[in-house]
Amino acid sequence: MTEILLYHHVQGLTDGVKSFADDLRRGGHTVHTPDLFDGRTFATLDEGFAFAKEVGFDTVKDRGAAVAEDFGSDLVYVGFSFGVMIAQKLAQTRDGARGALLLHSCVPVSEFGPSWPDGVPVQIHGMKDDEFFDEDLPAARELAASTPEAELFVYPGDQHLFTDSSLDDFDAEATMLLKSRVLSFLDTL
């Protein structure tokens, strides 16, 4: 059993994110899903970004980092898109990280340190023609090439939040494959 801290995307802690977390729980893992938007969800990425901008991106990221303090250090950090900023930072900077799952996004490793930490496995998942992931793909490839503990999976399609079953972007086939890979990853930790 792995303990997971899962950060939602900019549309909030949607039913689809909750469902994804429930699937990990059914796999035998403990999953914490902090709601960084205090119960608010948004129909579009633009509405979510507007809210995060109004609150302050750094404020939201700080909230996410503060949540980690409530748990031990022996965690796997998972981020969906906007949540990747928090998950990746914690995986790179918090001692004791067991792993990271970066879904729909990846930032350059140099954002949080000189290199990816030794002994912290990571998977990165995104869609090939997703305009947002396309911007992050160079950073994802660089991270994957920098350590044998990194895996990069690129799926056919152009949907951004394809793992969120409550959104129009949902792709059931790609999500099933992604979840299979994620559960295998978690089972090795």
Main beta-sheet annotation: 6 strands, parallel
How would you write the strand order of the largest sheet?
2-1-3-4-5-6
Low-pLDDT windows of residues: none
The rounded distance between the terminal residues' Cα atoms is 8 Å
Radius of gyration in whole Å, from Cα?
Answer: 15 Å
Overall residue-averaged pLDDT value: 97
Proportion in helices? 40-55%
Structural category is alpha/beta
Question: How would you explain this protein's 3D organization?
Answer:
This protein is of the alpha/beta class and 189 residues long. Helix content is 41%, strand content 16%. It has a six-stranded parallel sheet, with helices on both faces. Helix 4 links the parallel strand 3 and strand 4. Helix 3 crosses helix 4. The protein starts with a strand and ends with a helix.
